[in-house]
Specification:
Length: about 250
């Protein structure tokens, strides 16, 4: 994946990891378009980065995703990279869920159906570009779940699986398929912005951009801080890490 000369659409680009990626790519001379639900966050980001553009979209709304995909292609015909980053993370008590499973359904719609729908809408256009890429943002929790957020972890595991299949199906095209696997990062997701246990956002983005600069680009972007989760099973430490993580979160350790 080249780091400059792209036109990039980043969902969830108004804050957190999405904004960090958007600003890093913008500084490298790419045309960056961010999308998200919160107009204020989008406006603050574009105001701080002249030339960056934005669209509002609800990633739970299938029709809205089709519309924003068509609008992006129409206004930015050179679009060649999409970063599926938008996501929500909610704690769930499975023995005391609200009728209708609103939190679970919103999480599945945003974190899983959203990227699938947007990718499907944009693939015909991306296939026409000389060079293109799809980057799906999963999580270290895709590989070792935090029991407090079961649906979030399940959707990220599904995104990992979907990305493997997408990469295989596109293997004979010029569309690269990448997976970005963040650790616990200092963002507003689940109130982690001031948590000293979380990886500082700037440090995370810097390491990600260094990895993306390698050629060939690795299919999985794995920073050092997430390797204990990503490779827990391969290293024979899954049970120990799982019990330690979830025990500490529940106050049992």
């Amino acid at each position: 994946m080249k780091l400059s000369g792209n036109t990039i659409l980043i969902t969830g680009g108004g804050s957190g990891i999405g904004r960090g990626l958007a600003e890093a790519f913008h500084k490298l001379g790419n045309q960056v378009v961010i999308a998200g639900r919160r107009r204020q966050a989008l406006d603050e980001t574009t105001a701080a980065n002249p030339g960056m553009k934005s669209f509002t979209v609800d990633m739970q709304d299938g029709e809205a995703i089709k519309e924003i995909a068509a609008r992006t292609v129409d206004e930015f015909p050179a679009l060649n990279v999409v970063v599926n980053n938008a996501g929500i993370m909610r704690a769930e008590k499975l023995l005391a869920q609200a009728p209708g499973l609103a939190d679970a359904e919103a999480t599945v719609a945003t974190n899983l159906l959203g990227p699938i729908r947007l990718t499907a809408a944009l693939l015909p256009h991306l296939e026409k570009q000389p060079q293109a890429a799809v980057m799906n943002v999963s999580s270290g929790l895709a590989f070792l779940p935090l029991a407090l957020t079961p649906t979030y972890c399940a959707t990220k595991a599904a995104i990992h699986s979907y990305t493997l299949s997408l990469r295989y199906q596109l293997r004979k095209t010029h569309i690269e398929v990448l997976e970005l696997i963040p650790p616990y990062v200092q963002t507003h997701l689940m109130g982690g912005v001031d948590d000293p246990r979380a990886m500082p956002l700037g440090q995370f983005i810097g390491e990600v951009m260094e990895i993306l600069d390698r050629q060939p680009t690795p299919p999985e972007v794995v920073v050092e801080n997430v390797k204990n989760l990503r490779f827990a099973a391969e290293g024979g430490r899954f049970d120990a890490i799982f019990n330690g993580l979830n025990g500490s979160m529940s106050g049992e350790s």
